[in-house]
Amino acid sequence: MDTVMAASATPTATPAPPPTDTEVLISGAGPTGLVLAADLARRGVRHRIVERAERGFPGSRGTALQPRTLEALDDLGLGPTILAASGPCPRIQTWEGTERLRVWDLVERAEPTPAVPHPEIRMLPQWRTVELLHARLEELGGTVEFSTELTGFTQDEDGVTATLRHADGSTESVRARYLVGTDGSRSAVRRALGTPFARTPVDARPVLLADLMLEGLDRDHWHMWPTAPGGMLALRPLEGVETFQLIAGFNDTTHEPDPERDATPEALARLVAERTGLPGLRVGEVRWSSAFRANAAMAERFRTGRVLLAGDAAHIHSPAGGQGLNTGVQDGYNLGWKLAAVLRGAPDAVLDSYDTERVPVAADVLRLSTRQNAADRATESGFSPRGTETHQLHIAYRESPLTRERRHRLPKDALQAGDRAPDAPCHTPEGAPTRLFDTFRGPHFTLLDLTGRGDDLPSTEWLHPCRIGGPRADLLDTEGHAKAAYGTGLFLIRPDGYVALATDDPGDVREYVGWLVP
Q: Which of 26, 272, 278, 403 has the CB geometry, 3.0–4.6 Å to 418, for a possible disulfide?
């Protein structure tokens, strides 16, 4: 039986709020919640992350890690681990029955550049991404409380009082400064808030997903039968394990695939045989299955008082283009430093900017994934090529209330405040190679000085100055890549890798820093 939550849509004052048990309570331990928890942990923010399931997500579902997501995970300390565990997007082998038709690239191939170290997507089963994020959270001193369900909450001007139910049936009352719902597309937190979340059908055809053992098919390609009888079939070898991911579409829009009935080894063996005609394929153990129809939806707002929504709780997408998991990761990455800043004294406007910045991004991603779905349906191959628009490197916050562009007469294509902060190879004064992303990595702001003047710059625990060249240089722009990417000036880089302030005047930096932490 569903539990009905009590939640006030707007905070109501209480004369004597109880003391907080934790600063941030996170409901839901998928990729979004884990990224947020890891970011809070490295900032020393007291938090709890609860998950009603008894273990992590078991399926492959969201497999594409976009370049911008790779940058965020690298900043969290997972860069080499993710690259070692994942693989490039395999080339597509298109079939018609037993006949191989052609091999082609689903994604654009590109080499790393000084500004973009990860120019292509990497593929990794979602369960493995979750596993690695959980391990990183534990390294940072955090943990996930599995088999623990958020069953109710109320909020007031000072915080949120939530009720948790544990596996043994016991309940616990928890007081937190903020609650973040990262509890998926059927978010109980969102429903309790009453936040509108109208779903729009994107594709009426149902899809069955499964992770299964499969013999008789090479692991060098992503195999697709776009015109198979009954609907398309795709079989992709998963990274780091022996299983394949099966994607089976059904042309009959009235069909209701049942993962328990239709994803047994026997049922999938029949489906694979019918759609491929290949006699040598053998289906073994099925380790996970799911069914869905592509929908799109977005919450009307991502913040209601002391309660925030992120990931699938805030927006759901067609899987075309591989945007859902990645947009959720970026939600958590955007939100973590803002919660920490406000908890340490920054103005509430910093936290308001989460909604201001991420709502337009989610809306753009919904449009992109819906267009991609339509393009896939219109092509004979079943999937249309993905361009760089899916990489999320172009996302910018130029209109954000946190953004200050104070320079004049900029070149037409110049980097501006609000844009993603590019990478660049540099050297230390001692000659050791390094990169700007190495300087940015961590929970701090970075102040890049590309004026060459060597001015005295603000330096605090959360703000690290970095002079590029000139007297008192911290780094040397030996090949000119930093200058080419940024131009001349002072650039305040946010912890999530965007330019907060671009100016030629150190006084603007002191003003911004004074506003951020009075």
A: 403
